[in-house]
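Workshop exercise sheet. Pairs work together: one partner reads the sequence aloud, the other fills in the structure field after running the prediction. Swap roles for the next sheet.
Pair: D.N. / O.F.
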Amino acid sequence: MIFIVFLWLVLIVVGIKYNKTASETAFTLDNSVALRGICAIEIMMGHLGIATGTMILYPNRKAGNLFVGVFFALSGYGLMYSVINKNDYMVNFIFKKAGKLLIPVYIVFVINNVLGSVIEKRALDLAEFVNIKNIFLMTNWYVWELLMLYIVFHICFKISRNAKIIFRVILCFSIIFVIAAYVLKLENPWYGSTLCFGFGMFYYLHREQFKEIFVFRNPFIKMAGCCLIMTASIYLFFVRGGVIGLLVSRNVASVTFVVLLLSCLHRFSIGNSVSVWLGKCSYEIFLFHPLFIRILRPWIKNDVIYSFLVIGITILVSYLYILCECRIKLMCKKYMQKG
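Structure field:
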Protein backbone atom coordinates (compact mmCIF):
# COMPACT_ATOMS: atom_id res chain seq x y z
CA MET A 1 0.00 0.00 0.00
CA ILE A 2 2.91 2.33 0.70
CA PHE A 3 4.01 1.68 -2.89
CA ILE A 4 0.63 2.89 -4.20
CA VAL A 5 0.93 6.15 -2.27
CA PHE A 6 4.55 6.47 -3.46
CA LEU A 7 3.48 6.11 -7.10
CA TRP A 8 0.83 8.79 -6.62
CA LEU A 9 3.41 11.16 -5.11
CA VAL A 10 5.74 10.46 -8.04
CA LEU A 11 2.83 11.29 -10.37
CA ILE A 12 2.62 14.73 -8.70
CA VAL A 13 6.34 15.48 -8.49
CA VAL A 14 7.53 14.39 -11.95
CA GLY A 15 7.23 17.27 -14.40
CA ILE A 16 7.00 20.12 -11.88
CA LYS A 17 8.68 23.28 -13.20
CA TYR A 18 9.22 26.60 -11.48
CA ASN A 19 8.28 29.67 -13.50
CA LYS A 20 10.26 32.85 -12.78
CA THR A 21 7.40 34.87 -14.17
CA ALA A 22 4.03 34.25 -12.55
CA SER A 23 1.52 32.91 -15.07
CA GLU A 24 -1.62 34.86 -15.83
CA THR A 25 -3.75 32.07 -14.38
CA ALA A 26 -3.05 29.12 -12.12
CA PHE A 27 -5.53 26.99 -14.07
CA THR A 28 -3.67 26.82 -17.37
CA LEU A 29 -4.85 24.05 -19.67
CA ASP A 30 -1.95 21.72 -18.80
CA ASN A 31 -2.23 22.41 -15.07
CA SER A 32 -5.99 21.85 -15.13
CA VAL A 33 -5.87 18.55 -17.01
CA ALA A 34 -3.01 17.21 -14.88
CA LEU A 35 -4.81 18.26 -11.69
CA ARG A 36 -7.88 16.31 -12.72
CA GLY A 37 -5.81 13.16 -13.22
CA ILE A 38 -3.98 13.56 -9.90
CA CYS A 39 -7.22 14.25 -8.02
CA ALA A 40 -9.05 11.30 -9.61
CA ILE A 41 -6.34 8.86 -8.49
CA GLU A 42 -6.29 10.33 -4.98
CA ILE A 43 -10.06 9.99 -4.60
CA MET A 44 -9.86 6.38 -5.80
CA MET A 45 -7.14 5.68 -3.22
CA GLY A 46 -9.37 7.16 -0.52
CA HIS A 47 -12.23 4.83 -1.42
CA LEU A 48 -9.80 1.91 -1.48
CA GLY A 49 -8.80 2.92 2.03
CA ILE A 50 -12.43 2.58 3.10
CA ALA A 51 -12.81 -0.79 1.36
CA THR A 52 -9.61 -2.29 2.76
CA GLY A 53 -9.36 -0.51 6.10
CA THR A 54 -5.67 0.03 5.38
CA MET A 55 -4.26 2.75 7.63
CA ILE A 56 -1.78 4.06 5.05
CA LEU A 57 -4.72 4.90 2.75
CA TYR A 58 -7.05 6.12 5.51
CA PRO A 59 -5.93 9.79 5.35
CA ASN A 60 -6.86 9.78 1.66
CA ARG A 61 -10.45 9.10 2.66
CA LYS A 62 -10.61 12.43 4.49
CA ALA A 63 -8.52 14.23 1.89
CA GLY A 64 -11.15 13.35 -0.71
CA ASN A 65 -13.18 16.31 0.58
CA LEU A 66 -10.32 18.62 -0.44
CA PHE A 67 -9.69 17.05 -3.85
CA VAL A 68 -13.37 17.04 -4.81
CA GLY A 69 -13.23 20.75 -3.96
CA VAL A 70 -10.53 21.08 -6.63
CA PHE A 71 -12.88 19.46 -9.18
CA PHE A 72 -15.63 21.93 -8.23
CA ALA A 73 -13.22 24.89 -8.48
CA LEU A 74 -12.02 23.74 -11.91
CA SER A 75 -15.64 23.40 -13.09
CA GLY A 76 -16.61 26.85 -11.80
CA TYR A 77 -13.52 28.44 -13.33
CA GLY A 78 -13.99 26.67 -16.67
CA LEU A 79 -17.65 27.63 -16.79
CA MET A 80 -16.96 31.32 -16.24
CA TYR A 81 -14.06 31.30 -18.72
CA SER A 82 -16.19 29.64 -21.41
CA VAL A 83 -19.20 31.92 -20.95
CA ILE A 84 -17.07 35.04 -21.29
CA ASN A 85 -14.80 33.86 -24.13
CA LYS A 86 -16.97 31.54 -26.27
CA ASN A 87 -19.83 33.12 -28.17
CA ASP A 88 -21.96 29.98 -28.65
CA TYR A 89 -21.10 28.26 -25.36
CA MET A 90 -24.58 28.58 -23.84
CA VAL A 91 -26.37 27.13 -26.89
CA ASN A 92 -28.06 23.89 -25.72
CA PHE A 93 -26.07 24.30 -22.50
CA ILE A 94 -28.10 22.02 -20.22
CA PHE A 95 -28.55 19.37 -22.92
CA LYS A 96 -24.77 19.21 -23.51
CA LYS A 97 -23.84 19.26 -19.82
CA ALA A 98 -26.47 16.70 -18.82
CA GLY A 99 -25.39 14.39 -21.63
CA LYS A 100 -21.73 14.65 -20.70
CA LEU A 101 -22.49 13.94 -17.04
CA LEU A 102 -25.29 11.37 -17.27
CA ILE A 103 -24.50 9.17 -20.28
CA PRO A 104 -21.40 7.68 -18.57
CA VAL A 105 -23.45 7.41 -15.36
CA TYR A 106 -26.08 5.30 -17.11
CA ILE A 107 -23.47 3.09 -18.78
CA VAL A 108 -21.86 2.42 -15.38
CA PHE A 109 -25.33 1.67 -13.97
CA VAL A 110 -26.06 -0.86 -16.74
CA ILE A 111 -22.68 -2.56 -16.35
CA ASN A 112 -23.23 -2.74 -12.61
CA ASN A 113 -26.60 -4.47 -13.05
CA VAL A 114 -25.30 -6.92 -15.66
CA LEU A 115 -22.19 -7.87 -13.68
CA GLY A 116 -24.20 -7.99 -10.47
CA SER A 117 -26.65 -10.48 -11.95
CA VAL A 118 -23.81 -12.67 -13.26
CA ILE A 119 -21.84 -12.64 -10.00
CA GLU A 120 -24.89 -13.18 -7.80
CA LYS A 121 -26.32 -15.77 -10.24
CA ARG A 122 -29.73 -14.16 -10.47
CA ALA A 123 -32.02 -13.38 -13.38
CA LEU A 124 -31.46 -10.04 -15.04
CA ASP A 125 -34.42 -7.74 -14.37
CA LEU A 126 -34.82 -5.43 -17.37
CA ALA A 127 -37.02 -3.12 -15.29
CA GLU A 128 -33.91 -2.17 -13.33
CA PHE A 129 -32.49 -0.42 -16.38
CA VAL A 130 -35.15 2.30 -16.13
CA ASN A 131 -35.30 2.50 -12.34
CA ILE A 132 -34.67 6.22 -11.77
CA LYS A 133 -34.44 5.85 -7.99
CA ASN A 134 -31.68 3.23 -8.20
CA ILE A 135 -29.77 5.25 -10.79
CA PHE A 136 -29.81 8.20 -8.40
CA LEU A 137 -28.84 6.15 -5.35
CA MET A 138 -26.03 4.29 -7.11
CA THR A 139 -24.46 7.43 -8.59
CA ASN A 140 -21.93 9.50 -6.68
CA TRP A 141 -23.45 12.61 -5.11
CA TYR A 142 -20.92 14.81 -6.95
CA VAL A 143 -22.64 14.20 -10.28
CA TRP A 144 -26.05 15.38 -9.08
CA GLU A 145 -24.64 18.35 -7.20
CA LEU A 146 -22.64 19.51 -10.21
CA LEU A 147 -25.67 19.11 -12.48
CA MET A 148 -27.75 21.14 -10.01
CA LEU A 149 -25.15 23.94 -10.04
CA TYR A 150 -25.15 23.92 -13.86
CA ILE A 151 -28.95 24.24 -13.89
CA VAL A 152 -28.86 27.18 -11.46
CA PHE A 153 -26.14 28.80 -13.57
CA HIS A 154 -28.24 28.34 -16.72
CA ILE A 155 -31.29 29.93 -15.09
CA CYS A 156 -29.17 32.87 -13.89
CA PHE A 157 -27.73 33.34 -17.38
CA LYS A 158 -31.23 33.48 -18.86
CA ILE A 159 -32.12 36.27 -16.45
CA SER A 160 -28.86 38.25 -16.50
CA ARG A 161 -25.72 38.09 -18.63
CA ASN A 162 -23.70 39.92 -15.96
CA ALA A 163 -20.98 37.52 -14.81
CA LYS A 164 -20.58 39.14 -11.38
CA ILE A 165 -24.30 38.94 -10.67
CA ILE A 166 -24.35 35.29 -11.73
CA PHE A 167 -21.44 34.57 -9.37
CA ARG A 168 -23.22 36.24 -6.45
CA VAL A 169 -26.38 34.22 -7.06
CA ILE A 170 -24.37 30.97 -7.32
CA LEU A 171 -22.57 31.83 -4.07
CA CYS A 172 -25.83 32.57 -2.23
CA PHE A 173 -27.42 29.41 -3.60
CA SER A 174 -24.39 27.33 -2.58
CA ILE A 175 -24.48 28.66 0.98
CA ILE A 176 -28.22 27.97 1.25
CA PHE A 177 -27.72 24.50 -0.22
CA VAL A 178 -24.93 23.42 2.15
CA ILE A 179 -26.95 24.61 5.14
CA ALA A 180 -30.08 22.81 3.88
CA ALA A 181 -28.08 19.61 3.19
CA TYR A 182 -26.74 19.67 6.73
CA VAL A 183 -30.16 20.33 8.27
CA LEU A 184 -31.72 17.54 6.18
CA LYS A 185 -28.97 15.21 7.46
CA LEU A 186 -27.61 14.30 4.05
CA GLU A 187 -24.24 12.54 4.12
CA ASN A 188 -21.49 15.06 4.84
CA PRO A 189 -19.82 14.91 1.37
CA TRP A 190 -22.94 16.68 0.03
CA TYR A 191 -22.01 19.86 1.86
CA GLY A 192 -18.23 19.59 2.22
CA SER A 193 -16.90 21.11 -1.01
CA THR A 194 -19.78 22.97 -2.66
CA LEU A 195 -18.45 26.48 -2.07
CA CYS A 196 -15.40 25.70 -4.20
CA PHE A 197 -17.55 25.87 -7.34
CA GLY A 198 -18.40 29.51 -6.67
CA PHE A 199 -14.82 30.17 -5.60
CA GLY A 200 -13.61 28.90 -8.98
CA MET A 201 -15.90 31.43 -10.66
CA PHE A 202 -14.69 34.15 -8.30
CA TYR A 203 -11.07 33.32 -9.05
CA TYR A 204 -11.59 33.69 -12.80
CA LEU A 205 -13.21 37.10 -12.34
CA HIS A 206 -10.53 38.36 -9.94
CA ARG A 207 -7.44 36.36 -10.88
CA GLU A 208 -5.28 39.49 -11.31
CA GLN A 209 -6.16 40.69 -7.81
CA PHE A 210 -5.61 37.17 -6.45
CA LYS A 211 -2.17 37.03 -8.05
CA GLU A 212 -1.28 40.43 -6.64
CA ILE A 213 -2.34 39.49 -3.10
CA PHE A 214 -1.24 35.84 -2.85
CA VAL A 215 1.71 35.65 -5.25
CA PHE A 216 3.44 39.04 -5.07
CA ARG A 217 2.71 40.31 -1.54
CA ASN A 218 4.37 38.17 1.14
CA PRO A 219 3.20 34.89 -0.42
CA PHE A 220 4.90 32.63 2.13
CA ILE A 221 3.20 34.32 5.07
CA LYS A 222 -0.21 34.02 3.42
CA MET A 223 0.38 30.42 2.38
CA ALA A 224 1.46 29.59 5.93
CA GLY A 225 -1.75 31.22 7.20
CA CYS A 226 -3.83 29.16 4.77
CA CYS A 227 -2.00 25.99 5.84
CA LEU A 228 -2.73 26.78 9.48
CA ILE A 229 -6.43 27.43 8.81
CA MET A 230 -6.73 24.32 6.63
CA THR A 231 -4.98 22.11 9.19
CA ALA A 232 -7.17 23.41 12.02
CA SER A 233 -10.29 22.83 9.91
CA ILE A 234 -9.22 19.28 9.02
CA TYR A 235 -8.60 18.59 12.71
CA LEU A 236 -12.09 19.85 13.54
CA PHE A 237 -13.86 17.60 11.05
CA PHE A 238 -11.78 14.66 12.30
CA VAL A 239 -12.71 15.12 15.95
CA ARG A 240 -15.88 17.21 16.11
CA GLY A 241 -19.40 16.99 14.81
CA GLY A 242 -22.08 19.63 14.66
CA VAL A 243 -22.17 22.82 12.62
CA ILE A 244 -18.55 23.79 13.30
CA GLY A 245 -17.04 20.31 12.97
CA LEU A 246 -18.91 19.27 9.84
CA LEU A 247 -20.57 22.14 8.01
CA VAL A 248 -18.11 25.01 8.53
CA SER A 249 -14.80 23.19 8.86
CA ARG A 250 -15.22 21.07 5.73
CA ASN A 251 -15.94 24.02 3.48
CA VAL A 252 -13.23 26.17 5.05
CA ALA A 253 -10.70 23.35 4.59
CA SER A 254 -11.65 22.75 0.95
CA VAL A 255 -11.62 26.47 0.03
CA THR A 256 -8.26 27.15 1.75
CA PHE A 257 -6.82 24.07 0.03
CA VAL A 258 -7.85 25.50 -3.34
CA VAL A 259 -6.33 28.88 -2.38
CA LEU A 260 -3.04 27.13 -1.55
CA LEU A 261 -3.07 25.28 -4.87
CA LEU A 262 -3.78 28.45 -6.83
CA SER A 263 -0.98 30.30 -5.04
CA CYS A 264 1.48 27.55 -5.98
CA LEU A 265 0.27 27.04 -9.53
CA HIS A 266 0.87 30.67 -10.46
CA ARG A 267 4.57 29.90 -10.03
CA PHE A 268 4.71 26.18 -10.81
CA SER A 269 3.71 24.16 -13.85
CA ILE A 270 2.70 20.60 -13.05
CA GLY A 271 1.91 17.63 -15.18
CA ASN A 272 3.63 14.94 -17.15
CA SER A 273 2.46 12.63 -19.91
CA VAL A 274 0.87 10.23 -17.40
CA SER A 275 -1.02 12.77 -15.27
CA VAL A 276 -2.25 14.62 -18.37
CA TRP A 277 -3.37 11.32 -19.94
CA LEU A 278 -5.20 10.38 -16.72
CA GLY A 279 -6.75 13.83 -16.58
CA LYS A 280 -8.42 13.30 -19.94
CA CYS A 281 -10.40 10.35 -18.52
CA SER A 282 -10.63 11.59 -14.90
CA TYR A 283 -14.44 11.75 -14.86
CA GLU A 284 -14.67 8.16 -16.11
CA ILE A 285 -12.14 7.06 -13.46
CA PHE A 286 -14.28 8.84 -10.88
CA LEU A 287 -17.40 6.98 -12.04
CA PHE A 288 -16.00 3.51 -12.72
CA HIS A 289 -13.80 2.89 -9.69
CA PRO A 290 -16.63 2.35 -7.12
CA LEU A 291 -18.01 -0.38 -9.39
CA PHE A 292 -14.74 -2.33 -9.42
CA ILE A 293 -14.14 -1.70 -5.72
CA ARG A 294 -17.46 -3.41 -4.99
CA ILE A 295 -17.24 -6.23 -7.53
CA LEU A 296 -13.63 -7.32 -6.90
CA ARG A 297 -13.65 -7.23 -3.10
CA PRO A 298 -15.41 -10.62 -2.53
CA TRP A 299 -13.03 -12.36 -4.94
CA ILE A 300 -9.67 -10.96 -3.87
CA LYS A 301 -8.70 -10.97 -0.20
CA ASN A 302 -5.13 -9.68 -0.52
CA ASP A 303 -5.40 -5.91 -0.09
CA VAL A 304 -2.35 -5.04 -2.19
CA ILE A 305 -3.37 -7.18 -5.19
CA TYR A 306 -6.96 -6.00 -4.82
CA SER A 307 -5.94 -2.32 -4.81
CA PHE A 308 -3.65 -2.63 -7.82
CA LEU A 309 -6.32 -4.52 -9.77
CA VAL A 310 -8.99 -1.94 -8.97
CA ILE A 311 -6.72 0.92 -10.04
CA GLY A 312 -5.48 -0.87 -13.17
CA ILE A 313 -8.87 -2.11 -14.38
CA THR A 314 -10.52 1.25 -13.65
CA ILE A 315 -7.93 3.16 -15.68
CA LEU A 316 -8.09 0.63 -18.55
CA VAL A 317 -11.90 0.64 -18.74
CA SER A 318 -12.01 4.44 -18.48
CA TYR A 319 -9.53 4.75 -21.35
CA LEU A 320 -11.47 2.26 -23.49
CA TYR A 321 -14.66 4.18 -22.78
CA ILE A 322 -13.02 7.41 -24.00
CA LEU A 323 -11.83 5.67 -27.16
CA CYS A 324 -15.32 4.32 -27.87
CA GLU A 325 -16.87 7.72 -27.20
CA CYS A 326 -14.46 9.40 -29.62
CA ARG A 327 -15.13 6.77 -32.28
CA ILE A 328 -18.91 7.19 -31.94
CA LYS A 329 -18.62 10.99 -32.16
CA LEU A 330 -16.47 10.68 -35.27
CA MET A 331 -18.98 8.31 -36.89
CA CYS A 332 -21.86 10.66 -36.05
CA LYS A 333 -19.96 13.62 -37.49
CA LYS A 334 -19.30 11.75 -40.74
CA TYR A 335 -22.94 10.70 -40.92
CA MET A 336 -24.12 14.29 -40.43
CA GLN A 337 -21.73 15.54 -43.12
CA LYS A 338 -23.05 12.97 -45.58
CA GLY A 339 -26.60 13.93 -44.68
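Discussion prompt: Residues 214 and 263 are 6 Å apart (CA to CA). What would you look at next?
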